[in-house]
Specification:
The chain is built from 5 helices and no strands. The protein is mainly alpha-helical.
Length: 96
Amino acid sequence: MSGALGWWRGPRPLAERFRKAMGDTPLSHLRTVRMQKAMHLLAETERPLDQVAEEVGYSDAFGFSKVFKREIGLSPRDFRRRDAQDRQSEWRIQTG
């Protein structure tokens, strides 16, 4: 068994290697990836917030909304509205 896990030194050295390679901690990187996917789902779909939250790894919409607002600066609902307004403005410019 020691041969199979001979490289394993524990979570701290692994996190350090991750940070050196990615420039971010594993948890921060995971949060960024989740928020990017959430922004995509909010902008490109009409899925309800609880479904978006679940798809990006949160157990409830409330906790997801708190993290989303802290990270993005807008609530998920406001983000979705703003994205829709931006798209409508772009469409007017392109067809105007």
